[in-house]
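[09:14] KT: can someone run the structure on this one? pasting the chain below
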Amino acid sequence: MTGGRDGHGGRWARAAAAAAGLLLTACATVPPDAGRNPRDPYERVNRQVSAFNDKFDRYLMKPLAKGYQAVVPRAFRTCINNGFANLGEVRNAANDILQAKPGGVATDTGRLAINSTLGVAGCFDVATRMGFERRHEDFGLTLARWGAGTGPYVVLPFLGPSDVRDGIGLVPDFYSSPVGYVMPVSARFYLEGTGLVDTRAELLDATKLIEQVALDPYQFTRDAYLQRRLSLQYEGNPPLPKLEDDDSGESGPGPDATKAKPAQPAQPDGR
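[09:31] RB: done, structure tokens below
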């Protein structure tokens, strides 16, 4: 009779072998000019990792998300999604403190208090109806706030689009999530798994649109990610790129505009 530990070890080994198999069979079409974009010098490797992520998504995450969407009523899915977003207010508030954004701290802690009580543990987003708009902060944006450049664009296994700065920021963000402190560990895994499937279900329409309209889904995803992060860094008011000046012959800054000067959002309080 196989013990519990051996049974769990066998399942983990099979899961690791399946992931390795997906990685080995992942094959991406790499254009001849790959790597020439200064923001994406590792494009050849990134495309291979992206192909692996696509296969992992196609064979596991997307079917799970579709099943979740089919089985769980919309009202319950909204409640679950709002609940995880409410837990994210802890990360938002922590990074607002690190970024010296008192207005953001007030908004995010206010949302957490209102939705945790009047919103029944975050099931209902009462705070938005009361004028406390949902925001997003993370440690990558905190690093940007104090002048850290983005670094090259990278695609992380399982996690998807990122850059060096945001990849580093994932570590403290992980420890700022209340889910990471849930005990027992099995309950924590169930919560994290539910959150992943719920997030994937929310993105089904977006990924379907990308598959339908994007000539190069990799490039489309990369550019969309970089633009969104720049918009978040500058609170929705990113600096306009400088174009070539026909009169003076001067050209604009390099492709990484965030390195030109320390990030100072136009509205530091997050309102």
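[09:33] KT: thanks! Residues 43-71 form the longest helix (29 residues).
[09:34] RB: yep, looked fine to me
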